[in-house]
Amino acid sequence: MNKTQLRTTYKAKRREITTEEYSGFNAKIKSNFFKEFPSMDGKTVQSFLPIKERKEVDTWPIISQLRNSRVTITVPKADLELLTLTSYILDDHTQFEENEWGVREPVSGKEVAARKIDMVLLPLLAFDLNGYRVGYGKGFYDRFLSQCRSDALKVGLSFFPPVDQIEDVDQYDRSMDYCITPHEVFRFE
């Protein structure tokens, strides 16, 4: 399938997830994340903030556990005109507002350069066995990842297993290093 078909299919699949399934899937993703990455001490991790109405993976439990160790958490703020992301440190004083797409973003704070980030947690609708992901189609994260260090880990979070191949991957698409699902951790080279 191509990206458009995958977006349609996986948005519908998400809508079908029950409240009980949503809670269980999120708990399993968190467990699998910390089995794969038991210690991130001293690292900087960027996490997306979930749009729960769209049944995105709930990153707050992962963020909370990381914040209890020596991990710096950053969260993105989007420039909807330039289609870029800027990272801000998440702390107890961070205030949020929703942008026009319903995404919670920091109002202000200490900015962190993309090259300082060690791991990026990536939102996605679908992914393939080659480590490519399909998001909502604006390219925010592909642009952002192109600014990160080459050794920064790119980790997708998905409720669903991969498709064989996304047919219309292009030169701007960035592949992931890992994708964590409720049932398995996928590693890509």
Automatic annotation (TrEMBL):
NCBIfam families: MTHFS_bact. GO terms for molecular function: 5-formyltetrahydrofolate cyclo-ligase activity. Its cofactor is Mg(2+). Belongs to the 5-formyltetrahydrofolate cyclo-ligase family. This is 5-formyltetrahydrofolate cyclo-ligase. It catalyses: (6S)-5-formyl-5,6,7,8-tetrahydrofolate + ATP = (6R)-5,10-methenyltetrahydrofolate + ADP + phosphate. Its EC number is 6.3.3.2. It comes from Agaribacillus aureus. It is an enzyme of class 6 (ligase). Keywords: ATP-binding, Ligase, Magnesium, Metal-binding, Nucleotide-binding.
